[in-house]
């Protein structure tokens, strides 16, 4: 399977006494055979300290989403 389309919508409303925000994300998956699928080598990404991340649209050089990773969730 591969990702065919990905859409994320976010809004933020600011008021005198506070704010309200919401987000929704949709992903449309495509079926594909092994002969069509492009092989992607895994990348090792060691998360051992806080970092900022950005999702960018490269054609128009727009930041679509940004966030901050602080620590891993507690093990259950």
From TrEMBL:
Serpin domain: residues covered: 3-72
Signal peptide limits: 1-23
UniProt entry keywords in alphabetical sequence: Signal
Keyword Signal: yes
The keyword Iron appears for this protein: no
SUPFAM superfamilies documented for this protein: Serpins
UniProt-recorded name of the protein: Serpin domain-containing protein
Organism, as annotated: Rotaria magnacalcarata
Lineage summary: Eukaryota, Metazoa, Spiralia, Gnathifera, Rotifera
């Amino acid at each position: 399977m591969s990702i065919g389309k990905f859409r994320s919508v976010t809004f933020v409303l600011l008021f005198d006494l506070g704010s309200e925000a919401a987000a929704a994300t949709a992903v449309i998956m495509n079926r594909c055979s092994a002969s069509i699928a492009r092989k992607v080598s895994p990348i090792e990404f060691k998360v051992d300290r806080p970092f900022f991340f950005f999702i960018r649209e490269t054609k128009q050089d727009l930041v679509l989403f940004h966030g901050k990773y602080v620590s891993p969730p507690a093990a259950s």
